[in-house]
Amino acid sequence: MKIYKISDILDSIEPVQHYIGIFEETPDADIEWPHRHNFYSIVWFTQGKGLNVIDFEEYEICPQRIFTTNPRQIHNWEYSAETQGYFILMETSFAQQYNIDFSTPYQDIDKEEISFMETVLKKMLAEEDKQKQEIAISYFISLLKKGRTIYRSQDTLIFKYKKLLMENIHTNLPITAYTERLKTNPETLSELCKVQTGFSAKQLQLDMKITEAKRLLLYTSLNINKIAFKLGFEDNSYFAKIFRRKTSFSPTAFQKKYLKRS
């Protein structure tokens, strides 16, 4: 599956660290759907309706809903012609300066916050100084965080743990291997994971592996045995058991259901 850079989305030759745009005024990029990004994105829909699909989960597009995606997530959507809004795209290096890591796919903005947050966004759009724009972006994200915590990586430990999980997605390292690198212990890591993501450290590891398994099942020619091995599962039956527990489908049934749609 194609992985796109910000410059691909904007049809630009020059690379940028971040970009703020108006949804309805930005031409549709010549890209494949579904696809993956190598950057973080925030899309605030102020008008319109449709369906946004992030990592195989479907979410309704509606006014005053903000969607967020992390790098590597599979993304697709359909929306009505009158859809309007704003978007912010951020390179990984820029996002990591502020420990940005979105743990929930969307957030609905409270009515009393709409006017102020839209004013902040419009000022960001008008700001030509890139450094001031960066500060404004971090402020806008802090407003989201203040609302319903669109991302919960206040503790950089969890941010680093999730980054290590992605880097080692094709291995089956024990949790202790991660805690040694993070200079913590399994109990502390697991407790922080539960507070910030709702999963234990081990559950989070398995959840990320299953999401990667979904991608491999639908967008590669690898068979189920090879996918299990690629993700560090030595026992194919254990992989199938975990996959069914997490998705309610066997790997084969999942393939049939979603490949039939496409």
From TrEMBL:
Residues 159-257 form the HTH araC/xylS-type domain. InterPro entries: AraC-bd (IPR003313), Homeodomain-like_sf (IPR009057), HTH-like (IPR037923), HTH_AraC (IPR018060), HTH_AraC-typ_CS (IPR018062), Tscrpt_reg_AraC-type_HTH (IPR020449). It holds the Pfam family HTH_18. Keywords: DNA-binding, Transcription, Transcription regulation. PROSITE patterns: HTH_ARAC_FAMILY_1 (PS00041), HTH_ARAC_FAMILY_2 (PS01124). It comes from the Bacteria. One of its GO terms (molecular function) is DNA-binding transcription factor activity. PANTHER family: ARAC-FAMILY TRANSCRIPTIONAL REGULATOR, TRANSCRIPTIONAL REGULATORY PROTEIN. This is Transcriptional regulator. It comes from Porphyromonas gulae. The lineage of its organism: Bacteria, Pseudomonadati, Bacteroidota, Bacteroidia, Bacteroidales.
